[in-house]
Write a structure and sequence with these properties.
Blueprint (H helix, E strand, L loop, with lengths): L7 H11 L10 H12 L3 E7 L6 E8 L18 H8 L4 E3 L10 H9 L4 E4 L3 E3 L2 E9 L8 H29 L1 H10 L3 E5 L5 E2 L3 H7 L16 H12 L5 E10 L2 E11 L7 E7 L1 H15 L9 H13 L6 E8 L2 H8 L1 H18 L5 E6 L2 E7 L3 H16 L3 E3 L2 E3 L3 E7 L7 H17 L4 E4 L5 H10 L1 H11 L2 E10 L8 E9 L5 E2 L1 H10 L3 H18 L1 H6 L2 E5 L2 H4 L2 H12 L8 E6 H6 L1 H11 L5 E7 L5 H5 L6 E4 L11 H17 L2 E4 L5 H10 L3 E2 L8 E2 H6 L5
Parallel strand pairs: 17-18, 20-22, 22-23, 23-24, 24-25, 25-26, 26-27
Antiparallel strand pairs: 1-2, 1-6, 3-4, 4-6, 5-6, 7-8, 7-11, 9-10, 10-11, 12-14, 12-17, 13-14, 15-16, 19-20, 19-27, 19-28, 20-21
Length: about 725
């Protein structure tokens, strides 16, 4: 799609290099360096170029602010000839020296040279190679030390690319002027597909790469090569350049070559000789589109079985629910019986093989047009269109019989296979998909409780199903609480056992009120939120309302030592949530340094990459990170060294019987010793008695949390009666 120039610096450089004939472009490099120096607020910019001798550098251009120019000539600067900087060509990398004192011992000669020129800070970009042009662009600060920021490096890199392009274009232009034949040869050898478009959009003067890439002939209409769906955006791009709205624009379109499709990024610019003639450059981006398509597939399909995943299943179900006069639809939840036994006895590879076999068998057993999805683990979903409950029963019965007769052999072991199936009908007036999914889930659970290898249709008059379904409806209650603000923030004190904090350390908890005003246990609604992909919305509510409370009680907030809150595992892998979290925290500079984000050990073990991303987000803002439920898994210590956590919360299973259990005491002592060596502090959960408090203090635990310290209270109570001191 059409794009504009990035910023003022690029506009200025374009003006410099476009005002002169091509062969004199390099004469404006000095002027460009002056503009870069002024725009980027540094004291000088220079260009080092490869010399004729291999491995040699020479100063090609240098601009210094007048007050720092020693009048030794702007092209006679010896830095490029010194060993340390010649080595940059052999081992290219970004060199950032906030102070030249950071130069290594072997660069003493360079250090003395820079001091003579009053240089205090130095930056040299990695060498840039464009054709036969090899340059390294750098910047320096003489008036004082300068910290080179990422934005500065990016802007200088863009400018370096334009300078290098100008130098390379100049070299090419001079070669072209020497011989028209040589010009044609160089044009044909360019690695980019290049050509021209006349006023009728016919391709002319294409080089060899263009003919190969676009599979086109001279005088062929460009639009005849492009997919029908992309012709509109291509015509719009051509129009904005021809009409002078933009000097250059680009779009990505699909080119049809018989039955094959390739994707090309077309860069369109105006010809100076003829304003109706356009210069076209094409870059093959088919691989990127293929990868994007592959990522889309992985986002909607299960990598193991190739079936649609839960996200895709729910999206299709929601689409059906949104249709007017939708046909009768039933869904089924299929849960394999005793699948864990197969995993434990024959291993996970055997379990995966069975899942793939079951996936293929289910696709064969449903009707044409029905959708089979893997919802997670050993659970499958079936979306049955134009299906009444009677038909759904027959399908479920067939699946139970066929799977029961399916033989699964692995390494001379024969495993029995069976499934429990729950069926529910989608009501046309249903408010959301979670009602019917909860009903099918409840029916599946009851079928399993009744002895497995059977199916059950959800019946609201069955008290057993009604009880199970009420547990499922917690997810709906979560949606209602989010919509109607039925959540309330609570807090529980985390008390130091030895050192005295300057303020109270507390953990933020969440409570939910139902329509009748009764409080629903977090043990019910939080797992439901995780199960039905609502956890990230709940986390948003908690973080947003906590920060709003902090703003309203800023003085109280600043008096607190630390404010901890939990982040769910599903939020960690939610890209949209993580982007929102970063922007939300950046908007609260007065609050974030008091925050501590807690993530459970199990979420770290399954989402290590996302945990690293969270650390990269939190640390620059001053936020702390805690690992919750530490010790619940078997890989805890192995992962600790990979994550720079500030606090580790010891799982309650090691705390409740601490006074009697020597093993628990040894484990906690080991955790405390590890904390002292790895610079994190320990917090014990479920501290219910003063005896446990004393034992924890004896073992060296830093903090304690539990009913012996203080019961959870509404956060509103803290603001009404703030702690003393």
């Amino acid at each position: 799609m059409p794009v504009s120039l990035a910023n003022q610096l690029q506009h200025a450089l374009v003006d410099v290099f476009s005002d002169s004939p091509l062969i004199t472009l390099e004469q404006n490099v000095d002027r460009a360096l002056e503009i870069i120096t002024r725009q980027l607020d540094c004291d000088g910019v220079f260009v080092l170029a490869a010399g004729k001798a291999p491995g040699r550098l020479k100063t090609r251009n240098l601009y210094l602010k007048p007050q720092f120019n020693t009048l030794q000539g702007t092209r006679e600067w010896g830095l490029g000839n010194m060993p340390f900087f010649r080595n940059l060509l052999r081992h290219p990398k970004l060199l950032t020296l906030d102070s030249i004192e950071e130069l290594p011992k072997e660069a003493q000669e360079e250090k003395r040279f820079l001091r003579q020129w009053q240089v205090r800070s130095l930056l040299v970009l990695p060498p840039l190679h464009l054709g036969d042009t090899h340059i390294a662009v750098g910047a320096l600060q003489c008036g004082g030390e300068k910290r080179w920021q990422e934005d500065f490096v990016n802007e200088l890199s863009h400018a370096a690319a334009m300078i290098g392009s100008a130098m390379e274009l100049t070299r090419i232009a001079l070669a072209l002027l020497a011989s028209e034949c040589k010009y044609q040869e160089l044009f044909q050898q360019l690695p980019l597909a290049c050509g021209q478009l006349d006023s009728s959009n016919q391709l002319t003067m294409m080089n060899r790469i263009a003919k190969q890439t676009l599979v086109a002939a001279d005088s062929q209409d460009l639009l005849t090569l492009v997919r029908e769906d992309d012709k509109g955006i291509l015509l719009d791009t051509l129009a904005v350049v021809r009409d002078g709205v933009l000097n250059q624009a680009w779009c990505e379109v699909g080119f049809l070559h018989g039955q094959e499709l390739s994707w090309q990024k077309l860069s369109i610019s105006r010809s100076k000789a003829d304003k109706r003639t356009l210069v076209l450059m094409a870059e093959d981006v088919s691989e990127r589109h293929r990868l994007a398509s592959e990522l889309s597939f992985h986002a909607n399909y299960d990598a193991l079985t190739g079936l649609p995943n839960r996200v895709h299943f729910e999206a299709l179900l929601a689409k059906v629910l949104g249709e007017e006069q939708a046909p009768p639809v039933c869904i089924a939840f299929v849960d394999l019986d005793q699948f864990r036994v197969i995993n434990n006895v024959s291993g996970h590879i055997a379990g995966d093989r069975l899942l793939c076999q079951v996936a293929q068998r289910l696709k064969q057993l449903v009707r044409k047009g029905d959708l089979v999805a893997r919802l997670g683990g050993d659970e499958f979903g079936i979306l049955m269109h134009f299906c009444n409950p009677e038909s759904a029963k027959h399908i479920a019965e067939r699946i139970c019989q066929q799977l029961f007769n399916h033989e699964f052999n692995w390494e001379n072991r024969k495993h029995g296979v069976s499934a429990s199936i729950g069926i529910a009908q989608l009501e046309p007036l249903a408010q959301d998909i979670y009602t019917v999914m909860g009903q099918a889930d409840a029916a599946c659970r009851l079928a399993k409780e009744q002895g497995r290898n059977g199916w059950l249709l959800y019946d609201s008059s069955d008290p057993r199903l009604k009880r199970l379904y009420s547990e499922m409806t917690a997810s709906v209650d979560v949606l209602g609480a989010l919509a109607n603000d039925k959540f309330e923030l609570y807090f529980q004190e985390i008390r130091p056992l030895e050192a005295t904090d300057s303020g109270m350390h507390l953990e933020i908890l969440l409570r939910m009120y139902q329509e009748e005003g009764e409080m629903l246990s977090p043990a019910i609604f939080l797992p439901a939120a995780e199960r039905y992909n609502l956890a990230s919305r709940v986390d948003r509510w908690v973080i947003d309302h906590l920060l709003l409370w902090g703003n309203r009680h800023l003085e109280l907030w600043q008096s607190l030592s630390l404010v901890s809150l939990n982040l769910s595992a599903s939020s960690l892998e939610d890209e949209e949530f993580m982007d929102w979290l970063e922007m939300r925290l950046l908007a609260e500079p007065e609050l974030v340094d008091k925050l501590c984000i807690e993530i459970t050990e199990t979420s770290v073990l399954s989402q290590l990459e996302q945990a690293h991303r969270l650390i990269e987000l939190l640390k620059p803002l001053g936020c702390k990170l805690a690992m919750d439920d530490f010790g619940a898994g078997f890989s805890s210590f192995a992962y600790l060294k990979q994550l720079a956590v500030d606090y580790v919360k010891i799982d309650g299973q090691f705390v409740v019987n601490l006074c009697e259990d020597k093993a628990d005491q040894a484990i906690i002592a080991a955790m405390c010793q590890l904390g002292r060596q790895m610079a994190f502090q320990t917090i014990a959960e479920f501290v219910e008695t003063e005896a446990i408090v004393a034992k924890l203090r004896e073992l060296g635990v830093d903090y304690a949390q539990g009913y012996a310290i203080g019961k959870p209270r509404p956060l509103l109570a803290l603001s009404e009666s703030p702690p003393l001191g």
